[in-house]
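tool=predict chain=A
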Amino acid sequence: MYPIYYLLITVLVLIMFMFSLMNYNAFKAKKSRKTSSSPRKTVAPDTLDQYALKLQKMIQCKTVYCDDYDDTEFAKFRKLLENEFPNLHKQAELKIYGTGCLIYKISGKNTNKNVMLMSHHDVVEAEGEWTHLPFSGEIADGALWGRGTVDTKTPFFAELQAVEELLAEGYNFGYNVYIGSSNNEEVCGDGIPFAVEDFKKNNIKFSLVLDEGGAITKKLMPGVTEKSAMIAVHEKGRHTFKCTAKSGAGHQGLNPTNSNTISRMSAFINEVNKSKIFDKQLYPEVEATFIKHAPYMSYPYRLLFSNLKLLKNPLTRILPKVNKQVSAMMQTSLYFTTIHGGSREQVQAREVVAYAFFRCVRNSILAEEIIMFKEIAKKYNIIVEESVVDYCKPTSFTSEYYNKLENVLNTNFPDVIVAPFLLTAGSDARRFTDIADNILRFAPIDLNEQQYASIHNNNENITVSNIGECVCFYKDYIKAIEDIK
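tool=predict ok
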């Protein structure tokens, strides 16, 4: 009787202690908030008007890259850049790769240090009903409307304008600044890959590549009302495997129907989809996303995520079940993208081929998962061959370049939380993984829910005031990273 009583008391004391500790951590987290209501850094109203008119002209160029490529609108766009950014075109070296990938280089004092700023200038087709014509660049209701305002002509404009102004001011760049802009990023084109091959051939390496991928958005985290500047320090890798089922020798009509190529491939795909070969983990960059937001969460959520280290195991199991996007950040994703085989209705297919598309967070984890994938394939006599490998190594969110980016954001956007995250989509930046020490994906575009939803959708627009904030950001970040060796 007494031992059980003492045991219950001990358990109760431990629970009370744990709960008190968790509450203390939640209270301490709240005290660490950094955001403030101080005004953001921007430009004078007349300067902002000039920016908007420049960007408007860029939006009015219908730079949609199609299979039957027509350079007319792209040539118009390039001529516009030459006219609107004269200092840049006078002092920078410009190379054009492929059908129109632009790479500008402004030489600096330290010729061994290279930094690449990137934003593509091609856009997707404008379909659906638009309140303002998609290539009008109309300014209304405090916003500039049109395809490309978010994805990604506003960041491209801001990069160009920042360098244009620094050159006009006589700023002596401390390192080589590159500005890269693909004309076919939206179709996974060859512009940036051509440029990267040239960099490799000439042994040019980059200390930093800063591309699109993250932005300033709201309502990303439960219980958080502030906006968040999300900096992608990694993006999921892309691996494609060819899976082949072949028939044996002999008359095809005599083969057992339950073991022919189509049946075997179907059974294989079904078992893979039902299997649990993909390990769920809170990777460091995903864990940091929650930890950075924990101080700003309302109490129930703050209690959980300010104690992430204590509750890591149960949260690792629970989070993927309650949020699909978080689930994608915690494990490899697999899709069978194509399947084909056979050409005649009454003749069994001699060969069936399916392609499996993996999006992994870490290559090392994927290697273990592929072993299990192949074991399942072996059961159905499926041959598995790696077809495409496209993996970008993660960048540390404690690196000097990340810290400088966070500092500039804290100064220029004091009302915003700054946090690293894992990008589940993709960017051209991944092409630089072999020649870049740091790859960060962020543009200072401030998007409300409608603007975020307008990406590759109708009614795309950017708030006019944000255009000036973007230019200030790039000017300040270019200067901030000068002292990094």
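The mean pLDDT is 94. The two ends are 69 Å apart (CA to CA).
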